């Protein structure tokens, strides 16, 4: 499943947000290009080779099917998955299979296990059976058009104008989530356990997903510098990057294997949060931009 500009579709936005990094490791091999010509490519991976591949927040075993020499990307098949999940990925998504990387895979799985039982209330893993409704039909997060415009604008600033969001942002993601909780409390007349769980879940997904799937390649170095002191991304980044998470959430939640009833409730709560973000966008989307050399502009 794929998630959600004049002229830009939701799928285009999702693909733009998850742009792949350029290749960084080199060795020579011959591959067949799209026009059928055999040419040399500097790459550590060959067609037919088994690899470890990042997908969403996890690492899976995969097999390289094709190599695109011009775009420096790899068409892979996740072992044990249906063919519809085959995809082109950048070299940043792939690792060789060795003991070190297998340990990294195991450590990541352990890290993603819920540490707070309240966050997963009702989110029980269930076996897909004859009576189970396809999650692809259930997960549908609608991003309001006014918020989509921010995604398009930021894509333009970053990919075509060479700018970066100046960090740290104010308000940051933590601030926005806190304000949403206050909003729900005022509206409901009491603190809501459900809203608290949703906010905790958004924060957790954001902190895990940001380095794995929410950054443009030109933002990678900035991220390394901003989080050098082990500060959580939710305390550094703001509404612009938080909005990118909602483009990817349908795909992330698909793999969470949440029960249908709980998923519908979660979907409703996420839409409510987006409405809040839309209503307060003039307060949240106030970022200044900078170029890699440090010069700053305000958009």
UniProtKB/TrEMBL annotation:
<dbReference type="InterPro" id="IPR008676">
    <property type="entry name" value="MRG"/>
</dbReference>
<dbReference type="GO" id="GO:0005634">
    <property type="term" value="C:nucleus"/>
</dbReference>
<dbReference type="InterPro" id="IPR016197">
    <property type="entry name" value="Chromo-like_dom_sf"/>
</dbReference>
<feature type="region of interest" description="Disordered">
    <location>
        <begin position="1"/>
        <end position="26"/>
    </location>
</feature>
<dbReference type="GO" id="GO:0006355">
    <property type="term" value="P:regulation of DNA-templated transcription"/>
</dbReference>
<dbReference type="GO" id="GO:0000123">
    <property type="term" value="C:histone acetyltransferase complex"/>
</dbReference>
<dbReference type="InterPro" id="IPR053820">
    <property type="entry name" value="MSL3_chromo-like"/>
</dbReference>
<protein>
    <recommendedName>
        <fullName>Chromo domain-containing protein</fullName>
    </recommendedName>
</protein>
<dbReference type="GO" id="GO:0048586">
    <property type="term" value="P:regulation of long-day photoperiodism, flowering"/>
</dbReference>
<dbReference type="InterPro" id="IPR000953">
    <property type="entry name" value="Chromo/chromo_shadow_dom"/>
</dbReference>
<dbReference type="Pfam" id="PF05712">
    <property type="entry name" value="MRG"/>
</dbReference>
<dbReference type="GO" id="GO:0006325">
    <property type="term" value="P:chromatin organization"/>
</dbReference>
<feature type="domain" description="Chromo">
    <location>
        <begin position="45"/>
        <end position="110"/>
    </location>
</feature>
<dbReference type="Pfam" id="PF22732">
    <property type="entry name" value="MSL3_chromo-like"/>
</dbReference>
<keyword id="KW-0805">Transcription regulation</keyword>
<dbReference type="GO" id="GO:1990841">
    <property type="term" value="F:promoter-specific chromatin binding"/>
</dbReference>
<keyword id="KW-0804">Transcription</keyword>
<dbReference type="InterPro" id="IPR026541">
    <property type="entry name" value="MRG_dom"/>
</dbReference>
<keyword id="KW-0539">Nucleus</keyword>
<dbReference type="InterPro" id="IPR038217">
    <property type="entry name" value="MRG_C_sf"/>
</dbReference>
<feature type="compositionally biased region" description="Acidic residues">
    <location>
        <begin position="9"/>
        <end position="26"/>
    </location>
</feature>
<keyword id="KW-0156">Chromatin regulator</keyword>
